[in-house]
Amino acid sequence: MQIGTNYQTQSASYTSAKTSPPSTQQSSTKTSQTDSYQPSTQTTQSATYTKPTVTEAETDKESQKAKAAAFVEQANIENQERQKQMMQDFVKNNVSNQSGMGYTGNTDILKEIFGSVDEALPPMATTPEGAAAAVAPGGAYSVEAVSDRLMEMAKAFAGDDPEMIEEMQNAVKKGFEQAGMDLETGEGLPDISFETFNATMEKFEKWKAEVAATPEVQ
User: DSSP characters for 120-145?
Assistant: First the structure.
């Protein structure tokens, strides 16, 4: 009888020891999950300003703008040079016709400015009487008529730009020189050509003074 009692006691004690470990393991697992570290997914932004970098596309765009500006500037320069050359040719045409020598030059622009080539460069007289009438006051190649035509072309090219007015005046001087006249003495061409030169220079000076006195439009 005593042997049966001792067996039951040991069995009960064994059962208690067997069920205890799972309880401890489960508690440990819960504690580990509660205390675990989870890193933040938010990105920390710097308070320091960072200058944006210039992209390759922006660089190409600026380069294209610079090239376009250079092209326009070069085109303007070339256009001004053509205008000055035309002015010189026109002077030579008028002065040569005025002196009876005749001259053939670039007349492409004349129709646009004067309406026709004949208005810009009236036909030369074919008789001594006609030539004398042409250079007389009121004639097609008088001092007043030729200087007026020279100024009309200069104003068509220069507008009210003071720098271009100066360029046109210099072109007229070169035109007279190329026609064969000494600008200081008038030698090389008839007196009427020298008178025409002086009259034209006076009109240029008057024009420049008028432009300088005109208030700039804001």
Answer: HSPPPPSSHHHHHHHHSTTSTTSHHH
**Alpha-carbon dihedral sign for residues 48, 49, 51, 52:** positive
pTM score over 0.85: no
CA distance 54 to 35: 48
DSSP letter assigned to residue 183: T
69: left (phi over 0), alpha (psi -120 to 50) or beta: alpha
Closest CA to 162 of 109, 204, 198, 113: 204
Amino acid at 201: M
The Cα 186–Cα 74 span in angstroms is: 36
pLDDT tens figures, 7-57:
444 444 444 444 444 444 444 444 444 455 555 555 555 556 555 566 766
Spell out the residues 6+ positions from residue 203 whose beta carbon is closer than 8 angstroms to its own.
147, 151
The arithmetic mean of pLDDT across residues 59-79, rounded, is 68
Tell me the C-alpha distance between 217 and 211, whole Å.
12
Q: What is the pLDDT of residues 169-211, one digit of tens each?
A: 999 999 999 999 999 999 999 999 999 999 999 999 999 999 9
The residue to which tokens 């097609």 are assigned? 140
